Amino acid sequence: MYRALATTVLVVHFAFLAYVVLGGFVAWRWPRAFWPHLVAAAWGLAVVTIPLTCPLTYVEHWARRRAGEAGVGRGFIDQYVEGVLYPERHTHLLQVIVGLVVFGSYAGVYVKYRNRRDTKRGTEEMSEPPATV
Predict the structure, then answer these.
(1) 86 — phi, psi (to 5°)?
(2) 6: confidence class by pLDDT, cuts 50, 70, 90
(3) Is 41 exposed, middle or buried (0-12, 13-18, 19+ CB in 10 A)?
(4) How far apart are CA 67 and CA 8, in angstroms?
(5) How many CA atoms lie within 13 Å of 122's alpha carbon, on the beta-carbon side?
(6) 86: which strand partners?
(7) How far apart are CA 107 and CA 38, in angstroms?
(8) Is 133 part of any domain?
(9) FRET partner for 97 with CA separation of 20 to 30 A, picked from 8, 23, 127, 130?
(10) Residue 82: beta bridge partners?
(11) How big is the CA angle at 25 (ends 21 and 30), to the nearest 5 degrees?
(12) SS3 of 71, please?
């Protein structure tokens, strides 16, 4: 049971990481998703810049120990991403790329919001009767 919990937490962790990187694009379709993603992105930035232990990492390590496995001493990114999905020497480059992807998604949200607002404003101006002198 604990092994299944550890695997489930691992899947949730990968999903959260994908959301941190790509979730800003969800706000292109659903603007209300912007704020939850901003919180997730801020958490992701904090975990990378400040030595914090993610609660998901804590739960995974706890479940692995309870399952009789050796506790993993490294964080999620150190264990499953860095050196596995890309060489460790490219960590800083990948962090910059992730930051640019998130920033780009937010820029897209802003442009879509601004265009929607301008379109709405233009429609309202067209529907007003012309001013009489």
Answers:
(1) -155, 155
(2) confident
(3) buried
(4) 13
(5) 6
(6) 82
(7) 13
(8) no
(9) 8
(10) 86
(11) 130
(12) coil
Going by C-alpha positions, the residue among 112, 97, 130 that lies closest to residue 29 is: 112
Q: How far is CA 54 from CA 6, 48, 57, 111, in A?
A: 14, 10, 5, 33
- 85 within domain boundaries: yes
Domain with 46, as residue range(s), is: 2-127
Number of domains in the chain: 1
Joined tokens for residue 55: 């609660």
In a domain, 132, yes or no: no
**Structure-token pair, residue 65:** 């120990």
* pLDDT band at 18; cut points 50, 70, 90: very high
**8 falls within a domain:** yes
What pLDDT score was predicted for residue 133? Answer: 56
Tell me the residue type at 72.
V
**What is the CB neighbour count within 10 angstroms for residue 130?**
5
